[in-house]
Write a structure and sequence with these properties.
Layout lengths: L4 H10 L3 H15 L1 H6 L2 E5 L3 E6 L14 H17 L6 E12 L7 E6 L2 H9 L3 E11 L6 E11 L3
Antiparallel strand pairs: 1-2, 2-4, 3-6, 4-5, 5-6
Length: about 160
């Protein structure tokens, strides 16, 4: 079931092995969103209900104490929620990040994984309303399976200007 051009492309890529689809999705998004591409975030899984992205703690994204920088952590959450919302926004509309609420609870240990999901009601609203907004929670865990960040991203959508 394809909803828009993005979901058609993602569905086609996702039919390949997990390793190949991860590389192709990550590369595709990296070409469109330069900051995403520079950060080294990897799309591990993306479908109509969930997005799972991974960010390795490497020198490119580290802060002054060797952890993943807060801005890179925010980018990880924004990307997971944004790609997921983007799978549902019809082509005649555009998704826009309206706000993000991020609370850094404690220092992250190692790499980070972001898992975002949408409810059926949110999916229906995105597909069927010309404009609106959705609060999308994302769970960000570190290498120790702790949750160092509480994050919520408010995504809006509206009809594209002609």
């Amino acid at each position: 079931m394809s909803i828009n051009n993005l979901s058609t492309i993602v569905n086609k890529i996702s039919k390949q092995s997990e390793e190949i689809s991860s590389l192709q999705l990550s590369s595709m998004f990296g070409e469109k969103v330069k900051f995403f591409g520079q950060s080294g975030i990897q799309v591990k899984s993306l479908n109509f209900n969930n997005a799972i992205l991974h960010l390795e703690n490497n020198e490119t994204v580290q802060n002054h104490i060797g952890g993943i920088h807060s801005a890179a952590t925010a980018l990880l959450g924004e990307s997971a929620t944004g790609f997921l919302v983007g799978m549902h926004v019809p082509d005649d509309r555009i998704p826009l990040l309206k706000s993000m609420n991020i609370k850094y609870v404690h220092r992250a240990d190692g790499n980070l994984k972001a898992t975002a999901s949408l409810t059926e009601t949110q999916i229906s609203d995105i597909k069927n309303s010309d404009r609106g907004e959705a609060s999308v929670k994302v769970v960000i865990t570190d290498s120790s399976d702790n949750n160092p960040v509480d994050a919520e991203f408010i995504w809006a959508w509206k009809t594209k200007k002609k």
